[in-house]
Amino acid sequence: MEFFILSLLNGLSYGLLLFMLSSGLTLIFSMMGVLNFAHASFYMLGAYVGYSVSLYVGFWPALFIAPLIVGTMGAAFERFCLRRVHRYGHVAELLITFGLSYVVLELVQLVWGRIAVQFPPPDALRGPAITLINDSRHGLSVLWGAAPPALCTTSEALVRIVCSPFPATRGFMMLVALVMLLGVWLLLTRSRIGLVIQSALTHPEAVEALGHNVPRIFMLVFGAGAALAGLAGVIGGSTFLTEPAMAATVGSVIFVVVVVGGMGSLAGAFLASLLIGVVQTFAVAFDFSMASLARLAGVELSSNSLFNLTLSQVAPILPYLFLVLILIFRPKGLLGTRED
Amino acid sequence: MENNIANKPRNALRWLPWGLFAALLLAAPSVFSSGLGISVLSQIGIAIIACLSYNMLMGQGGMLSFGHAVYSGLGAYVAMHALNAASSGAVPVPVSLIPLVGGLAGMGFAVLLGYVTTRKSGTTFAMITLGMGELVFSMSLMVPEFFGGESGVSGNRVVGNAVMGISFGPAIQVYYLIAIYTFASVVLMYAFTQTPLGRMLNAVRDNPERVTFIGYDTQRVRYIAFVIAGFFAGISGGLAALNFEIVTAEVLGAGRSAGYLLFTFLGGSTYFFGPILGAVLMVLALVLFSEFTKAWLLYLGLIFMLMVMYAPGGIASLIMVNARVASHGKLKPLLGTYGLLALFLLLALLGASALIEMVYRLQLSASEGDVMRYMGLTLNVHSLQSWATAGSCMVVGFALFEWVRRRFVHQWKEVQTAIEVRGHSGETL
Questions:
Q1: Which listed residue, of A229, A241, B12, B126, carries a Cα 20 to 30 Å from B326's Cα?
Q2: Chain B residues within 8 A (CB-CB) of chain A?
Q3: How far A47 CA sits from the closest chain B CA (Å)?
Q4: Segment A124-156, tens digit of pLDDT
Q5: Entry pTM
Q6: Three-state SS for B372?
């Protein structure tokens, strides 16, 4: 039971991290029609800039400063590169972000080196946020923070106690993602600039005719998307690893999220992020293979490695399998409205 | 009557590029006869087929694929298994037909995977191909029986006795096999652009809605084109398997797919011959340039971004635009400005690349010492003088370049207007 709850929590926190990335990607896509290939690069930049800033001022200020810096970079890229190729169409826009992802990867290696940097979470986030205690006498209980060792050990031979901690960094990740979700939602639906953004989504000419500077709104949205990716980067980088490969590991998964959720649908991206996060986390924890399942059913399969692959081994390809299935059975995506 | 007479030299002219291309393929090994030369030429032939098949999707069909290496790579694997089966005598396949086996395999996988991939067009297509590429690449590490795990699958291309002295042992014999396949594939792919299907593909790229109204199924057109592109990609994979005698999982990777995209675009996707230029550049960059500098991916990314911003038609379009100016006899006054532009750009690039190389030395290979040789210059990464010289070289170069460029833009517009005016007056006559 505690295994199930912990896996669910881990899956949800990973899914929320994916959502922090895919929300920016979706916003930029639905607004400008630009598929930002460099989105994961901004995530990586967020982690590295956060690391460098935290060396001088500590983690908490870096959590705010790094997204600002990354957002400024994103806005500058939009202003000086992306806007220039806008007239050549969407393919050129996609290609220039693709080129940017190459350049960012090389620059990051140039500035910070090819191996991972040490970017630990702050002291406040070390240790568990909650601990699940499964006592064979009293059942399951939840404790805030770390459990004292006395609670987790017993002298009685028949009593079994298992303490499972849930890391605070992951809890913090969930918290930030939810706050961010709320903030973006409020900004888009309840503020004046949000209304302008929403109308610029569908009727850019009309909004321009009303006197709003649509190219500047585009620049702001792109910068904001990059900043969100940067924020996710600071948190993701300190929770997982800050290394040059980190952009590639999430890069293609967030594309899957956006297609599965439905192109341009923020709610779809949310649903798909959680789904993929949870599915992938659970898959890693299981050791079933086709051969072992068949053995349970009394059939002995050949020793072909395809049958002996465990679920945890195929976990990395599950998102892509999911993508294929969605495309066959629901090409619009989970909550999408666009046909192509 | 007059028309026929006027067309006659034009028809002869039509065969000229093909004759030249064939002569080039035949004669190239006698010019670059070293081992490295033959190897580079063979790789160029393979890359030409791959990039042209990629451009069938990107340039002609408007399908931006990020997973084209899946088809060339799987073709290479199947070809390698076919070669091994032929060596063991299990399947009587002559070595010269092994690339065709690769082609059929690439086609088969394109039939299978392309059905899902081509359901969408545009941006979504790009993301799906990316996902497919990741899927197949991850699979390759999971099924070592077929993909050979980390070490890959290797084989021996010398099978049985030599027929008419051809055993495919020496590299030069493989080169000529590759050259024959390259020539045939290029002719076939060019012929494809002239077929009704090829034209329909262009229409699907430009205006899918209208194509649907005429009564064509755009998804079907994309699917068929995808399958044909998969066939030629598979041929290039099969040739690569014969050439290297080993296939590793890297041939399926995202890096390989991205390479096809980058260099096809750099060569120019709007003209048929653009990807051929791109393929030559790709091999030169991968084999020679990457030996020359560690920062080559950075340069590649920067060049690519600049090309997307300033010359989205690639090198081919730059050539064609200037050919148009030359055909109107207006190129001569521009040549001087071109010379100046090139000179200042070289100066700026020398400075910029010296800076980049010094940063690389400092950050990534500091163990090799402070002093480095670069382009005949001796630079010391810890002396202010080296940095200042390189920096000022770059700044001055770019300033002069920008100054000439502004004049050039002005001059260019004048020339274009002159050509336009003449073109219009010619039409009215």
A1: B12
A2: 62, 64, 116, 119-124, 126-128, 130-132, 134-135, 138-139, 142-145, 254, 258, 261-262, 265, 295, 297-298, 300-302, 304-305, 308-309, 312, 356, 359-360, 363-364
A3: 19
A4: 777 777 777 777 777 777 777 777 777 777 777
A5: 0.86
A6: strand
